[in-house]
Amino acid sequence: MSDTWNPRTKAVHGGTRRSQYGEVSEAIFLTQGFVYDSAEAAAQRFEGAGPDEFIYARYGNPTVAMFEERIAMLEGAQDGFATASGMAAVSGALMSMLKAGDRVVSSRALFGSCLYVLEEILPRYGVEVEFVDGTDLDKWRAAITPDTKAVFFESISNPTLEVVDIKEVCKLAHAVGATVLVDNVFSTPVFSNAIEQGADVVIYSATKHIDGQGRTLGGIILGSREFIRKTVEPYMKHTGGSMSPFTAWVMLKGLETMELRVNAQCATAAALADALQGHDALSRVIYPGHASHAQNALVKTQMGGNGGTVLSIDLKGGQKAAFTFLNSVTIPVISNNLGDAKSILTHPATTTHQRLADDQKELLGISPGLVRMSVGLEDERDLIADVMQAIALAE
User: Fold this and answer.
1) pLDDT in tens, 35-55
2) CATH code linked to domain 258-394
3) pTM: predicted TM-score of the whole model, two decimal places
């Protein structure tokens, strides 16, 4: 029956495992280890545990398994491995499949920590990484050569919100046998069709829209059962990046309301983008769902026209104006998370991307006046009024 369910039903009921007590809310199996009936049973379990058999919480846990099954069902993936954070998912997915001599092609516009993994960590172990303009298919075509092992990109980049054509990049990668890994955080599981569009591996920071209320860190790697269990699981269970049972329970609760939250946030983000277009104090308003966005036509086909919950604005007055704006709002908070029920403002140049050299920031479009706005669940009218008064003070 679950195969025919629509996404909201899957997000509430998918992967449920009830104990002998028949609980309504999913149980938290807050245990490190598991007891075996006999020495023979322990030996047999270590030879190969079944889907309902567990050895150690670092390897798997019933609550974590429920989360993995539910999000995999929602995403259309065969399987998933839940991780301690979004960056544990990104680094784990890449490190588990790569070795010295392998080659990765990646979009250039990435979250600061993703850039660090690709620029600093992978090359230490002999992995070659080439960066391209993610919006330019000709650049992808030139860079993806027969020796390419993996292709990595954010479907919507952080923080300049460039949109990568998943279907076309996957075609180029698969033509040479490369594995495509997509960080899909800004697209959200609600608007995502990444696997359907050709992605082999989809990665989420569950810290963002899945939790959605600023409580816990978590991540998920989604893909084929063979990739998850034969490539990702051995690496993750031995290096210790697995998700805790309590976190998995929080994420299960987040999934239940995720679609309602994300759709409401997306509607407010679109209204805010409309209200800000053409403002004299702004040099740019960047929102994928707005007609002014360079890849808006792609957004219509790739995400059904939904622009997500994040927009960015660029204040003409540079960092001074951006800081005045940030210090003048009364509803959004200044932080570096996103996808939260609370609206959050971030100044990427001095926070999430501060380690980058000025010329690299310029290349990525991260100007001194750029502010990333993650739209929450506040009343649309209150939020627009507050943002407008803060911009007026920053002019």
Assistant:
1) 999 999 999 998 887 778 899
2) 3.90.1150.10
3) 0.95
